[in-house]
Specification:
Length: 343
């Protein structure tokens, strides 16, 4: 089994495209500066030793060095010892609403970012249980099956957004049905579903599905996010910030449907929490309720020892960066009269 011990360092790779854009702009600025200095061909003759390829070569070596450095910091590991492990716990699915209404900013910085942060904290709080992730809007999708790989689960939570969903809405009924199908068939009394949503435009089947699920041993908790006064939904129109509008052109105001979330939790034998309150208290209350659920023993084959390979990536990164540093911008005297790119 391959994994990164510190996968959050991989987010540093997002800087690479910006470095590419910066390099391109610097080349354009350099070209314009030379054109202002004088005739381009004349400038080349005045500086015959300047290489026209080494700027790009040095940049690509630098970029590769940074890439290997980031991978090294994340510490690639390979499982070398796998054993059967007896565990005791319950199965928990976190269902995250990623509909467009979750972009409303009545809860800072917006509903979705606040819900994702709460989900990450919840994963940390429930370490020791098997956890899974469902995302939903107009439909529900299983993003992460039940697992104890909490780092991977955190990555999927961070990357969740409305663009992943082909249809919009709040299909809580589909969430409950999908969660029931995703729990092990032999698990009848040790399963929990935590739905984090604004509850807006929920489907009518949600309450009935939650009630039926509770009869089969599933506890359904709901966490509401949003406010009663609501807010507009920000969108980009032709590159400019605007709000989602209805057919008449009026901005659409989205409000949390707290009553619907309360009813779903009530018939689901769980409890409702409002994320506008202290999130630490909500996490503590959820943990206490989940700890009251009877644990079950299950056997799992898991890697207990991992071998790290960060040193190879760091060594390659340092080698590339040293080579980049030693390469000058002038032509190599052995290759000065040769065009390497001419066939």
């Amino acid at each position: 089994m391959f994994r990164f011990e510190h996968p959050y360092y991989l987010y540093a790779l997002e800087i690479l495209p910006f470095l590419g854009v910066f390099f391109y702009l610097m080349l354009q600025a350099r070209k314009k500066a030379l054109q202002r200095f004088g005739n381009t061909e004349l400038v080349k003759k005045l500086a015959p030793q300047t290489s026209k390829y080494k700027h790009a070569l040095k940049f690509w070596l630098f970029l590769l060095g940074i890439t290997f450095l980031v991978f090294g910091a994340a510490n690639p590991q390979w499982g070398v010892k796998r054993e059967k492990v007896q565990r005791k716990g319950i199965d928990v699915f976190v269902a995250l609403d990623v509909s467009n209404s979750m972009l409303a900013e009545d809860i800072a910085p917006n509903r979705l970012e606040r819900a994702k942060k709460f989900s990450e904290d919840l994963v940390e709080k429930l370490r020791g249980e098997r956890l899974g992730l469902i995302i939903f809007a107009g439909n529900a999708y299983l993003q992460v099956p039940l697992t104890i790989d909490y780092a991977a689960l955190g990555i999927f939570i961070k990357s969740s957004n409305p663009e992943l969903m082909p249809t919009q809405g709040t299909a809580i009924g589909d969430v409950v049905a999908l969660a029931e199908r995703s729990f092990p068939a032999d698990n009848k009394r040790h399963k929990v579903l935590i739905i984090i949503s604004d509850g807006e435009n929920h489907d009518d089947e949600a309450q009935q599905r939650a009630e039926e699920a509770a009869e089969s041993g599933l506890l359904v908790f709901t966490v509401g996010i949003g406010s009663e006064e609501g807010s507009f939904i920000p969108v980009l129109v032709n590159g400019r910030s605007d709000f989602k509008r209805d057919e008449r052109g009026d901005p659409v105001r989205t409000r949390m449907n707290e009553e619907a979330l309360r009813r779903i939790a009530a018939v689901g034998s769980g409890a409702y929490f409002n994320l506008a309150n202290n999130s630490d208290q909500i996490l503590k209350a959820l943990q206490q309720r989940i700890d009251q659920v009877e644990k079950r023993e299950y056997e799992q084959r898991a890697f207990t020892d991992f071998e790290s390979y960060f040193q190879y990536f760091i060594a390659i990164a340092l080698l590339l960066l040293v080579i980049e540093f030693l390469i000058s911008y002038t032509k190599n005297r052995y290759l000065a009269d040769k065009d390497l790119f001419r066939i």
